Amino acid sequence: MAGAGVMFFITFLAKQDSSHEPKTFQAKVRYSYVATNKYLTCDLKPPQGG
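The chain above was modelled as a monomer; its predicted structure follows.
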């Protein structure tokens, strides 16, 4: 798929189940110029460690 589209990483806050504290999620979506657009993943964003 080289050069045929764009990969988006969308980060957002949401409440999981009945939790009162919002958590950070990250979705990965492929926008393609030549094929069907595709949702790939949506998971809790991994912690930023150092």
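Residues 5-44 form one domain.
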